[in-house]
Amino acid sequence: MRKYRFLHLFLLAFVLLAIPAVSHAQVRIGVSVRIGPPPLPVYAQPYCPGPGYIWTPGYWAYGDDGYYWVPGTWVMAPEPGLLWTPGYWGWGDGVYIWHRGYWGRHVGFYGGINYGFGYPGVGFFGGEWRGREFFYNRDVNRVDVHIIHNVYDRRVDDRFDRDRDRVSFNGGRGGIDARPDREEEFADHDRHFDATRDQVEHRDEASRNRAQFATFNHGRPDVAATPRPGAFNDRGSVRGNDRGERFGNHANDARGNDNRGDFPNRDSRAGNRGDFRNDNRTRQDNRPSRQENVRPRRDQRNQRERAPKPDHKSGKPDGRGDHHHF
Fold first, then answer.
1. Is 290 domain-assigned?
2. Percent helix, strand and coil across the chain, each rounded to 5?
3. Is there a domain that residue 293 lies in?
4. Where are the alpha helices (DSSP H) in the chain?
5. Range name among 44-58, 146-160, 280-294 with the lowest pLDDT average
6. DSSP secondary-structure letter at 34?
7. pLDDT for residue 31
8. Where are the alpha helices (DSSP H) in 208-317?
């Protein structure tokens, strides 16, 4: 009798130990959809609000009313030394599957998607940790050097194809043809940390804003990027536009210099690990281009025009419970 009782307890303990392992294995996989996500919108990057913030690119999440845009935003790292690996949509078994993003010591595979601002499809060039301090690469980040002093300049090749580099999914027809290399596979099996609470609330806020849904904005979200999580109404938030300003060099931005293209071509993945060059072929000012209802004063010919603040409208919340998009 004792023998059978011991066997029963042993099997129960085995089952309990197996449950967390299964959950951990599934943590990277989210919702699956039969319709692919829209192209990535074009937008400028808001200024970094302060030291310690790391840029997390925007992405298309999915809810009951279809795809909605979660704005790119600056997020405080959970702890020093951690970097963000963006999530991505990947084609498999006849559906588009969302692979969630995560925090880790190394940046892993994110589908070869060119999210911009230091995430060209492979690796991360937006900055680096030096001890407990994060240093920003001004060539791909919009940083005010009067506020943030931990900066450096590392040129990044600006070859950029406007149509191809807006593709927002990996694999399948029309998707990015990319597979993880050895470093990315290592990062994928390294210790991961889930998205922060601020990131979760930021995503949920986007899911409640009707103007963020592709069916409403036709791929041009009302808010494309924010200076902080959830700051949809902040004066520093950025709207989507048509001018190709998503890719810009922010070096010396506070000094008023022109901005240049900054992202490497995904076709030469091996070259993305070393030094980078910029030939200044794409000069931009990284400001949202859409301006509406502007009436200059009669007595002032050169009055600057200001774009109106977006009118946020509420829509349905995220469907199917929590889709866990990050």
1. no
2. 20, 20, 60
3. no
4. 2-26, 182-188, 197-207, 214-217
5. 280-294
6. S
7. 79
8. 214-217
